[in-house]
Design a protein that fits this description.
The protein has one domain. The chain contains twelve helices and two strands, in the order H-H-H-H-E-E-H-H-H-H-H-H-H-H. It is globular.
């Protein structure tokens, strides 16, 4: 499992030491965060903080993954390359949005419709090619079966799989984007989920049908390489968190949040744990749910609100909670959700 340690260490080092270089470069060009006027007043001190930090996360992951495979002399898997492609495309979409905001000096980049169109397009391409490239055993990067903690007997078919992956990627990337509202909140929660993916990938590899003759074995194409990619993502996010923790010296922006959301959905699909992503990414689900509840109730009640402000983290800010307190408590929630997801994954193995 040396490749997992290498990928994580390389990504951590590149991100940790590369982020200050990016901060200086972005600050020199005046690429600072634009703050919404209707947001919490405490956020106005963050105006001008360099954004688009997701660039270093993407760079660190790509370089670390590549170096690891050069050193171990093992070729990259189709599954990992597809997830990297999805991440990069969504990162570019987020970069365009971030760049428009800083160039216009307004918190208005791409429209919601333009973002959704881009997410749907890239997710659809990812899903289509994910059903291609079978290996010698006929396994493709993405299964045509609906998966919970493993593939179920429910066959979706090509069109249904593409639609399902589009919904997964769009929901997850927007969920991470909504969570990225306080210093380090989304980054820390993402690290926990990627660490869980490492454990799941290694377990599926050890208990794979290629090496284990059992009815309880896993039929997954590239579980070990998904663990390697997850380690690179965990390392890159951890290095970035050093500078993104409160008080943040840099924000990941939509460049990072959309890319990380795509990575979460893509890896979950490749590991055949699609529905398990709900508890593993529980914090993102909760925060997204708060926005849905707020918007729906506002429309149905004629202007009334459930929360003082959505997403949920801003509700607690307006209640007087300190930013660090909110982040730490939400990280605890994220950790409990990840523990629940891992528990469900292992419990299913024991039950069988």
């Amino acid at each position: 499992m040396i490749e997992i340690l290498l990928a994580g260490a390389f990504a951590l080092g590149i991100s940790l030491f590369g982020t200050p270089v990016l901060i200086r470069g972005l600050a020199a060009r005046g690429y600072g965060q634009v703050i919404r006027e209707d947001g919490p007043q405490s956020h106005h001190v963050k105006r001008g903080t360099p954004t688009m930090g997701g660039i270093i996360i993407l760079f660190a992951v790509a370089v670390a993954y590549s170096l690891t495979h050069v050193i171990t002399q093992v070729g990259p898997s189709a599954s990992a390359l597809l997830v990297l492609g999805l991440m990069t495309c969504l990162g570019i979409l987020g970069f365009i949005d971030d760049f428009l905001k800083v160039s216009r000096k307004k918190s208005l980049g791409l429209t919601g419709r333009e973002k959704i169109i881009g997410q749907v397009l890239y997710a659809g391409i990812f899903a289509y090619f994910g059903l291609s490239f079978p290996d010698k055993k006929g396994l493709t990067p993405i299964s045509s079966h609906l998966s919970t903690v493993r593939d179920t007997s429910i066959v979706l078919g090509t069109v249904a799989v593409i639609i399902w992956i589009i919904l997964m990627v769009t929901a997850t990337s927007n969920g991470v984007n909504l969570t990225d509202g306080l210093d380090g909140l989304a980054t820390g929660a993402a690290v926990m989920t990627f660490l869980a993916f490492i454990l799941i990938g290694v377990w599926e590899f050890r208990q794979g049908c290629a090496t284990l003759n059992s009815v309880n074995c896993y039929v997954v194409r590239d579980p070990l390489d998904m663990a390697v990619l997850s380690a690179a993502l965990a390392g890159a996010c951890t290095g970035f968190l050093w500078w993104n923790a409160s008080p943040a010296k840099i924000f990941m922006g939509d460049t990072g949040s959309l890319a990380l959301g795509g990575a979460l959905a893509g890896i979950a699909a490749a590991l055949r744990i699609e529905l398990l992503l709900i508890p593993l990414g529980g914090l993102f689900v909760i925060i997204t749910g708060s926005v849905i509840i707020q918007t729906t109730y506002f429309k149905l009640s004629g202007g009334k609100r459930v929360f003082r402000m959505a997403p949920l983290q801003h509700h607690f800010e307006l209640k007087g909670w300190g930013e660090v307190t909110i982040v730490l408590r939400f990280w605890i929630i994220a950790g409990l959700c990840v523990a629940l997801g891992l528990g469900l994954f292992y419990a299913q193995w024991v039950a069988r």
